């Protein structure tokens, strides 16, 4: 019997579910799962998870006391809710879950370190080992420095909103566990910038970016894992078969599961070893220069931080409204 694309992909790449929907995770049985403020906001509005939301709000109120404002309770509840969903997800997967630091702290190294420690402490209070958690931080220079501090404390990190080689190299040189280059968002930018309606998967700018990063890491022996993220179509996933990990939305997992055909192993460390690649050392000045020169990366990083910030603010409004209902 012919294998589906998803079955073949699992043989060459770690499949990760890009969702906060626990039922979807149970359906596709990934090794790992990732969440972000947008995904947690979506999940928090699903009726089946209302109990988790309500319990989290009540706990946050109990911690802060009756004099705290609804906004203060909602802010604390967001962090706890992300951990609550993460804990539930870990009950149904064998691997790791990624939980995100507040995007509003993306340019504040000290605050990102503090929140990363707090998130891990919440998990450990619930009996979850830090080895099963990745702290997600935006790949700004400040975010990368925060992750470097956390990594030295045994707190593993996933650097997100990553769009350029300069970000990837800085992460690798700082010993970061994993990076999440955003394939689909890079494609979105190029389609808008060039006016093109589409790209063939093999020439997709997001695919080419992840391939470049993967080859660089394998060529120079970096241990940082590459997890392609933010896919727009199955073609992008097919072109990155063999990447260390790929985090995929449930709709695309379903398409992969229902499609048969031969899946070619595209990314391979053996091929990377022979690639003609120049090694680059990244300090802050070099990072800033390369970032400024990369219009796509500059615009998409700023847009991504803004988008996650708005999703977080939306979630806090939802939580404050729900708290008002609970408290009559």
- Give the class-level CATH name: Alpha Beta
Overall number of structural domains:
1
According to DSSP, the number of beta strands is 8
Fourth-level CATH superfamily: Aldolase class I
Order of helices and strands: HEHEHHHEHEHEHEHHEHEHHHH
CATH topology: TIM Barrel
Radius of gyration using CA atoms only:
20 Å
- In percent terms, what proportion of residues is strand? 5-15%
> CA-to-CA gap between the ends?
58 Å
Name the structural class. Answer: alpha/beta
Sheet with the most strands: spatial strand order: 1-2-3-4-5-6-7-8
Overall 3D shape: globular
* Fraction of residues in H or I helices: 55-70%
Mean pLDDT: 95
CATH architecture: Alpha-Beta Barrel
Count of helical stretches? 15
Q: List unreliable stretches of 5+ residues.
A: none
- How would a crystallographer describe the biggest sheet? 8 strands, parallel, barrel
Description:
With 328 residues, the protein is of the alpha/beta class. The protein has a single domain (5-326), classed as Aldolase class I (TIM Barrel), CATH 3.20.20. Helix content is 56%, strand content 11%. It is built from 15 helices and eight strands.
Q: What is the fold's blueprint, element by element?
A:
Elements: H1 5-12, E1 14-18, H2 22-28, E2 32-34, H3 37-44, H4 50-64, H5 70-90, E3 97-100, H6 109-125, E4 133-138, H7 141-152, E5 157-162, H8 165-173, E6 178-181, H9 183-194, H10 205-219, E7 225-228, H11 234-239, E8 245-248, H12 250-257, H13 269-273, H14 284-293, H15 295-326
């Amino acid at each position: 019997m012919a294998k589906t694309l998803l079955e073949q992909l699992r043989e060459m790449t770690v499949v990760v579910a890009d969702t906060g929907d626990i039922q979807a995770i149970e359906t596709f049985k990934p090794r790992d799962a990732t969440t972000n403020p947008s995904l947690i906001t979506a999940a928090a509005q699903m009726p089946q998870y209302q109990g988790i939301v309500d319990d989290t709000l009540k706990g946050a109120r109990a911690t802060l006391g009756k004099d705290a404002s609804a906004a203060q309770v909602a802010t604390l509840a967001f962090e706890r809710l992300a951990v609550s969903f993460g804990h539930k997800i870990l009950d149904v997967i064998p691997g790791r879950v990624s939980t995100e630091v507040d995007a509003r702290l993306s340019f504040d190294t000290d605050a990102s370190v503090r929140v990363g420690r707090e998130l891990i402490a919440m998990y450990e209070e619930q009996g979850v080992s830090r080895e099963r958690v990745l702290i997600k931080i935006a790949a700004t220079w400040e975010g990368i420095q925060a992750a470097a501090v956390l990594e030295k404390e045994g707190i593993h990190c996933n650097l997100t909103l990553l769009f350029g080689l300069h970000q990837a190299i800085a992460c690798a040189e700082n010993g970061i566990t994993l990076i999440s280059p955003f394939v689909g968002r890079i494609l979105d930018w190029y389609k808008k910038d060039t006016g093109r309606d589409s790209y063939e998967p093999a020439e997709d700018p997001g695919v080419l970016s992840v391939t470049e990063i993967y080859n660089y890491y394998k060529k120079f022996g970096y241990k940082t894992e590459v997890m392609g993220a933010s896919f727009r179509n199955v073609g992008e996933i097919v072109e990155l078969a063999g990447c260390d990990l790929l985090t995929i939305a449930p709709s695309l997992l379903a398409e992969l599961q229902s499609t048969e055909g031969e899946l070619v192993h595209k990314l391979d460390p053996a091929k990377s070893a022979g690639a003609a690649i120049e090694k680059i050392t990244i300090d802050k000045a070099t990072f800033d220069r390369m970032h400024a020169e990369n219009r796509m990366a500059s615009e998409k990083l700023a847009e991504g931080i803004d988008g996650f910030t708005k999703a977080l603010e939306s979630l806090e409004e939802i939580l404050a409204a729900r708290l008002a209902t609970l408290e009559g």
